[in-house]
Write a structure and sequence with these properties.
The structure is a homodimer of 495-residue chains. Chain A is built from 16 helices and 19 strands. Chain A has 495 residues and is an alpha/beta fold. Chains A, B: This is Aldehyde dehydrogenase (NADP(+)).
Chain lengths: 495, 495
């Protein structure tokens, strides 16, 4: 166990002076160096893998196996951001040479991206590795050329300290300024608020609750200098069940969703919290099979007391709502940290009227919304707020017969899944982990995938600038050999 | 003269119902159709070119010749956004096929961009065409697949009505829903505020003053559902004069800047408001020549009374500031709408201490900041706030001898110009018209160039989606023949 030191406001000021100075050096290093640095963080984490995974498992109550796969994912993320940083597509390099379009291009313009400055990262309780200290936000910020200050999550402080050590070793090994990375620790919310309000912080990455994300967003927006906040605040990830597919594959769907709802005690931001179906024997059968499977999942410890208490309160409020039917067995748990995996159902009419039923219950619970017909399903799809994901379970031809539902669903989500489950966020180039408010504070960005780097960088155009003083990605010879748009054509060629 | 009708709140509600419905149809049309629609707006404007340019010139006091070139620029912008909309690079299409990276890509993911919804556009007084009704923001919003509501600028209502007619004709000719475009008119700020607060408005584009932009930004951020605001709020566009180049080209630089400071009575957001030089005979000579040239420019009418009054007040405050020296002749004007082209100077020590001197004086005025040496110039570059542009006037080798100044300048601007003037914003792919706060409310975006479209669109990823139901840009056959990133490689090939 490492000693916990709470950061004072004076310390915070010197941390930010150092990070600002470090940013000025780091942001000018080329993408190859930044990429290698990310790979070094991964290497340093691998050296202390067992310590990290055991500590994280102890701190979060998540099974070691689950943490081990998250560790592998985190290493993959770091390497993937490194590869993409080097590939350079995120910089969208554009070059318009003088007179390439006579009468229009009177100047030579060259555009690249520059890191915003110091980024404050607030990690998630449910992903102590992949969305925390050296998680996606930190990797994106470093790839963009930013300095990073992580606000340690109180639910996994020891894990955070171990991972911070790995980052600090990488900083040392690369001879980078120590200020490039720091972690701050506070007893309550105060240190996080001071961080977001600090004039030297230029952007915020957050993963967590709606109330936490919005509190930071409002602070940041009402600063004298507003700064961008990307807050991923979870969602209910609605699943729309069409009759044709369901009637043929009830077992399959029940199996998919029993796992998806209860895996890691439902503590995923992409957990399917609402299943929308059409009143039918098939839906009854699905509910029956799903309830039976969920009943077989024994209550397990949740991440921490706050989350366990919130789940209990929200679950109880839900199942005691007039018109809501609990479909699983209402057992007692033997521990206040344990959650009861649950399935409930409600008629769409009631769901549409009662906004409280649309809210996320973070944990192993789904609400089946029973619609009279597809018109009612369209109403539900239209009334539901912005989501990280939405899922359509359907035969292809029946989906194409209901374009209004498909359109309504599409307008509300960042990722649209066909015949699958929303849990399991693949880390690859085409991924989008974002979505319309209130899923995130800015639907134009993603927390996963190479474009996540864009959250923390801004375009700069050089006009008629001397070749020798241009950053390498803009030089005629294209020394980084990246793909560039030169006079509206994509090419790796030199100019 | 067309009759002016002030939009009521009830009318605003029905306008927004219609625009929301129109968005749902328009956003699903493919980029070819959206591009052709933009071209049709240009064609419709060309049919009434004389009426538009004469009206705009009368309403803004800008010379007809200046308005005519702005008209041509506006047509070029519409065509350029159409071309870029069709080219499709702004959609950053990414496709990761299943098993392209075994163990990682377990799903087929395909990412494209979707318009945000209805965009509210607030045009600028100084660009009644290029940054107004059918200006860059409107073109970007349509290209993204959004509906547009323009808040008419009270300084050029008749121009706005004429251009609106052209847009409405294009809407009709394309058989698009009428709600796709509307203009609202109000006596004060109220209608604009109602627009920004309306739940069916999903983004805001603004070009104008700091106070106007920040008022809308704060409203939008404190909505129940915050929405993105891109406000371009102008800047002082500092120019850094290095001794070597200046000593050899004093005449040339004086000529460039006399024009750049006084063209259109300095009413450009990229007007060079601050010139930073090193105390020397060369700088004295530049000031002398520049003052003589500026003195020869006769006072002309400004855009409207509010802008003329603000210029007079701010100019007087500046030249009456202790330590500020007026270098041009302090003449009287014969009309309260006329501005006196002016040059003043101040020592850097005083400039650094007095923040009021850093503020934009919108009009034909520049302040020369006289530094003792390059260290003081570095201090000035570090203390200046975020800017749309910064300009370096230097020999290449002397610039490379002062990396600290160059770095400080780079961190504060969206466009960095070498040996030129900041006025004249080339409309091409590599352009960036944006910059760190307070130049804009979000430095990650640009108001000019194809990436401007990104302000009003968001990524959506389709997971394992049926081929036939994918938008065309994501289909295997690549029917739009756009460049896509397939399994981390850029290609136009089909899959």
């Amino acid at each position: 166990m490492k000693q916990i030191h709470f950061t004072t406001e004076t310390e915070l000021n010197s941390i930010l002076d150092a990070s600002d100075a470090a940013y000025k050096i780091f942001s000018r290093l080329n993408v190859d160096i930044r990429a290698s640095f990310l790979e070094e963080i991964a290497a340093q984490m691998l050296l202390i893998q067992t310590a990290i995974t055991e500590t994280a498992s102890q701190e979060t109550n998540l099974p070691l196996q689950r943490i081990e796969s998250e560790f592998i994912r985190t290493i993959h993320q770091l390497k993937s951001y490194a590869a993409n940083c080097r590939l350079g597509l995120w910089m969208d390099v554009r070059i318009d040479t003088k007179d390439s379009e006579p009468g229009t291009t009177l100047n030579d313009l060259r555009k690249t991206y520059l890191g915003l400055g110091t980024v404050a990262v607030f990690g998630a309780s449910n992903f102590p590795l992949a969305y925390s200290t050296a998680g996606g936000d930190t990797a994106c910020a470093f790839a963009a050329g930013c300095a990073v200050i992580v606000k340690a999550h109180s639910a996994h402080l020891q894990t955070g300290l171990l991972v911070s050590e790995a980052i600090e070793k990488a900083v040392d090994l690369f001879g980078l300024p120590k200020g490039l990375y720091a972690q701050v620790i506070g007893k309550g919310n105060e240190i996080g608020e001071q961080l977001v309000m600090h004039p030297k912080v230029k952007a915020v990455g957050f993963t967590g609750s709606y109330s936490g994300g919005m509190a930071l967003h409002r602070l940041a927006m009402n600063r004298k200098e507003p700064i961008p906040v990307f807050a991923e605040m979870g969602s209910v990830n609605p699943v729309y069940l069409f009759e044709g597919f369901l009637s043929k594959h009830t077992d399959l769907v029940a199996g998919w969703y029993a796992d998806s709802i209860t895996a890691s005690m439902g503590q995923f931001c992409t957990n399917p919290g609402i299943l929308v179906g059409i009143k039918s024997t098939w839906l009854d059968l699905l509910i029956e099979k799903l309830s039976a499977k969920i009943d077989k999942v024994s209550p397990q410890l949740m991440l921490h007391q706050g989350i366990a208490d919130a789940f209990r309160t929200k679950r109880n409020a839900l199942i005691n709502t007039n018109g809501v039917r609990l479909m699983t067995t209402d057992i007692e748990t033997d521990h206040s940290l344990k959650a009861i995996p649950s399935l409930a159902s409600v008629d769409a009419k009631l769901f549409i009227e009662n906004r409280a039923l649309h809210e996320e219950v973070f944990g192993p619970l789904s609400l089946v919304v029973v619609c009279e017909n597809y018109e009612e399903m369209t109403l539900v799809a239209n009334i539901i707020e912005g989501q990280l994901t939405a899922t359509i379970i359907a035969d292809e031809d029946e989906l194409s017969q209901h374009p209004a539902i498909e359109e309504a669903i599409k307008d509300k989500c960042g990722r649209l899944i066909f015949n699958g489950v929303p849990t399991g966020v693949q880390v690859s180039f085409a991924q989008n982990h974002g979505g319309p408010f209130p899923a995130t504070t800015d639907s134009r960005f993603s927390a996963v995938g190479a474009d996540g780097i864009k959250r923390f960088s801004r375009p700069v155009t050089y006009q008629n600038y001397p070749e020798a003083l241009l950053p390498p990605e803009l030089q005629n010879s294209n020394p980084l050999k990246i793909m560039r748009t030169v006079n509206n054509k994509m090419t790796r060629d030199s100019i």
